[in-house]
Amino acid sequence: MKYVVGVDEAGRGPLAGPVAVGAVLVPTDFDWGLVEGVRDSKKLSEKKREEIFTRAGELERSHSLRFAVSTSSAAYIDRYGIVPAIKRALAEALSRLEVEAKDCRVLLDGSLKAPAEYIRQETIIRGDDTEPVISLASVMAKVTRDRLMKRLSSKYPAYDFHAHKGYGTASHISVIQRCGLSDIHRTSFCSRLLHARDCV
Question: Is the pTM of this model over 0.85?
């Protein structure tokens, strides 16, 4: 076996925006000293996550690792549900690594599962805290999604997506109740909050 792949998601719970799944591929003998401070993205500051993301990009350019982040939109989540949305993004992220399933061991966080052709796969509870390759995948997914929500914030200025990234904070819920939903809100997650009317 040549490679280890780590997989984690970001954005399962927000009221708006996509869900993102990160996949990171490293050689089995990868030196984790090359990426200092990797741990569960939720336990890192935004500044530290950005530093690690930048470092991973440098390592990808030097062919030391590969990563991919795929997303499923709010519309997809509303149509099919959050679990199928994560499953779709996960399969896409793995395929974008362009590695033979037989050549890698896949480690996944929480309740995630890889497609069946990845016969060497293991789902690890709190894996984002115990397996560096899963931790790095969580950082890649989180930073990619946060950057997207910041870009979308300028399109939907009333909602302050740059601040809360679509999560159900008190201020976000207040805007929804006042303005209704934007077209990147997950209607299925917000049905109890609103009498929808648009506010942009």
Answer: yes
